[in-house]
């Protein structure tokens, strides 16, 4: 098995596992460092594999990019390597230059079309690369813009108010009429018989000594005939409420 075939096999094992294995990642890094002469093919395998993965595997793929990029940066710093993208033979420096060419697509995939988890992981990896100067400031700033634009678009999608129903947009709301409580009719005064009124006045005058007994007694008799007798059960007795 060639070194590139071994690298691809190990890469698929890393991104296909349910959890990231430190030992598998170490094996992948060692395999990549041995194949830096074929830097273009390494970058092609990395990016092609990433794009073919379902969302859960993309986080492991991002970790693979991170591990290989930082290992290559460590070699460049340690041995003061330089690279030319047009050189026929690759090394760790040219590997970093060529991997920069696919980072925009990688981060677009992670933060724009990915999930909240992939966006968060991409931001953490970018923060690590910034602190360790894994890539040039120009590249890192470009990646930060990708993350920033994705966050702004995501915020717009969350805060956009819902569109009203066009079928009811032009309808005029009809105010609800107030509820009128009917009032009880005012009690009407019972008309008083004028004859009865005159007799009552005469009795009042008799009580004050204005009439003699001969007139008072016939008046009481006539008034008793005009007024209905009070029934014993017509008057309710007040009692203490139970």
From TrEMBL:
- Classify the source by domain of life: Eukaryota
Which Pfam families does the record match to this protein?
CID
Chain intervals for the UniProt region annotation (Disordered): 150-193
Q: Which InterPro entries match?
A: CID_dom, ENTH_VHS
Per its UniProt record, what SMART domains does this chain match? Answer: RPR
Q: Where is the composition biased (Low complexity)?
A: 181-193
Fetch the PROSITE patterns from UniProt: CID (PS51391)
Q: What positions does the domain CID occupy?
A: 1-151
Name assigned to this protein: CID domain-containing protein
Q: Name the source organism.
A: Athelia psychrophila
């Amino acid at each position: 098995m060639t070194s590139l075939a071994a690298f691809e096999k190990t890469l698929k094992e890393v991104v296909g596992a349910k959890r990231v294995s430190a030992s598998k990642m170490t094996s992948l890094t060692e395999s990549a460092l041995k194949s830096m002469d074929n830097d273009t093919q390494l970058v092609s395998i990395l990016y092609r594999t990433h794009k073919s993965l379902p969302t859960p595997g993309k986080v492991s793929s991002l970790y693979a990019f991170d591990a290989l990029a930082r290992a290559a940066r460590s070699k460049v710093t340690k041995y003061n390597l330089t690279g030319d993208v047009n050189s026929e033979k690759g090394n760790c420096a040219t590997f970093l230059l060529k991997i920069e060419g696919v980072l925009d697509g990688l981060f677009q995939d992670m933060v724009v079309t990915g999930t909240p988890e992939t966006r968060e992981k991409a931001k953490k990896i970018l923060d690590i690369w910034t602190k360790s100067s894994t890539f040039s400031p120009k590249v890192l700033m470009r990646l930060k813009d990708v993350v920033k634009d994705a966050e702004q678009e995501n915020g717009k999608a969350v805060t956009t108010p819902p569109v009203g129903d066009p079928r009811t947009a032009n309808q005029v709301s009809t105010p609800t009429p107030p509820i009128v409580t009917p009032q009880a009719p005012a009690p009407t005064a019972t008309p008083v018989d004028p004859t009865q009124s005159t007799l009552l006045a005469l009795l009042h005058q008799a009580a004050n000594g204005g009439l003699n007994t001969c007139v008072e007694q016939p008046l009481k008799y006539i008034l008793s005939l005009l007024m209905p007798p009070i029934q014993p059960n017509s008057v309710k007795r007040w009692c203490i409420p139970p």
